[in-house]
Design goal:
- The chain is of the alpha+beta class.
- It contains two helices and eight strands; from the N terminus they run E-H-E-E-E-E-H-E-E-E.
- An eight-stranded mixed β-sheet has the order 2-3-4-1-5-8-7-6.
- A hairpin with a 6-residue loop joins strand 2 (32-33) and strand 3.
- The chain is globular.
């Protein structure tokens, strides 16, 4: 792996308004709405020029909060490649590769322990 393995995080939520209220209060931040038809998606403030991964609150059918509660995204050249390795390794694909606009593509998979993880690529 040529870069740091973690590029993004998401906190899965059941009640988006409740979650936004909590995180806004605790961290004194305003979220940016980047929702789309597949999911409710509210991003934490982020500065690409600073160290650290950005993240968001996410609500998507089939990917409910659970064990661990946080989804970590792993950087990939093409997330379809890693996605194709999930089932043979004992995991399942929750959401196949899908576009996320100017930010590239993601796949959401479930590992052998039941944890959702994300795969991110620009192509």
């Amino acid at each position: 792996m040529a870069t740091n393995p973690v590029t993004w995080f998401e906190l899965n939520v059941l009640d988006m308004e409740r979650a936004k209220a909590f995180y806004s209060t605790v961290f004194q931040v305003e979220f940016q709405d980047m929702s789309n038809p597949q999911m409710a998606y509210w991003c934490f403030p982020m500065d690409d020029g600073k160290v650290g991964a950005g993240g968001a609150l996410m609500q998507m059918a089939g990917c409910e909060p659970g064990k661990g509660g946080t989804m970590v995204y792993f950087s990939c050249e093409d997330c379809a490649v890693e996605e194709s390795r999930v089932a043979p390794a004992g995991g399942t694909v929750c959401r196949p590769k899908m576009p996320i606009g100017e930010f590239g593509f993601i796949s959401v998979v479930i590992d052998t322990e039941g944890n959702p993880i994300g795969l991110h690529s620009l192509k």
